[in-house]
Sequence to fold (368 residues):
Amino acid sequence: MKTRAAVCYEPNTPLKVEEVELDEPKVNEVLIRITATGVCHTDLHFMKGEAPVGMPVVVGHEGAGIVEKVGPGVTTVQVGDHVVMMVSFSCGQCRFCAEGQPTMCTVGFSVMATATLPFCMEKRLHVGDQYMHHLFGLATFAEYAVVHERSCVKIREDAPLDVVCLLGCGLSTGMGASINVAGVKPGESIVIWGVGGVGLAAVMGARLAGAGKIIAVDKNPKKLALASKVGADCKVNASKGDPVSKVMELTGGGADYSIESAGKAETIQQAFSSIRSGGKCIVVGMAPIGSMVNIPSYEFLLGKTITGTIQGGIRHQLDIPRYVDMYMDGKIPLDKVISNRYHSLNEANEAFRALEAGEVIRSIIELR
Ligand SMILES: [Zn+2]
Ligand SMILES: [Zn+2]
Fold:
């Protein structure tokens, strides 16, 4: 079939929105009509050549839509199901999947690295005989996508797809970082470095977990104001003075946890410095590949931990429907992170420009 898609042919060139061919879903694959896709900073790393990916590539990885067709052997979704597509793929069988860490799946890493469909490593998108990569095995900047059935999670039909699409990456990453990876307990303190979409979701997750003091750090006053609205108790403007000292003051010697969601080596260092002895720092943001982090080695003698996570360590099939339910019950204001809406793939380049310029928190491209 024919569909329109936003294609990156070369790093640092504008996306070309054009008509492409999409082949039929094969074994265990489904055809999804995408109704909304989030615009996530991670795509920019690939589009700017800061992270390697095969070209040409159809970008986008925060999609939601409706299943239109299923290939042979599909058992987990049916035609008409509403689904959110997952940035991390889990095979369900490797050691990580078996031990309840599906975002660490070994097959998932190969999907990420090759930008092809899982297992077969094939591509279904092409113009003539030039095939295109599917970013994260998804390629959601398109009207239709063919993905593996395990790349999507079925959700309730009354949930607005143009909000919950963000659970495909950014929002589940932030929520999961606070709840699953940090494991915040009632009364504990947490500092979140960088409150874009992911960081704001980390604030919401920490609040849900009962954190005692939630501190948001950012240079952007608009983002800090929004952090207060979704549950942050204190704001630190990182462009005024030393933010680490401010966090130390506010927490009386360091937070129990810190989450880095700015995706910069410098903020990873600050996030590690801002936890107390025995505290835990969780790196969520994607810094450019090859960038290095400097950490004073003596700080490890203080029993401090630093770790990373993919998509907040969520269990896709378990956590996504729960997050959707909590949003629908008014317990997590997921829609508050959406500051812009676009109504056509033609606006893809503008959406990324505005994101990079810091003009938006999170934007959605709606496709009908
Ligand atoms: Zn696996
Ligand atoms: Zn993302």
The mean pLDDT is 97. The chain is about 25% helix and 25% strand.
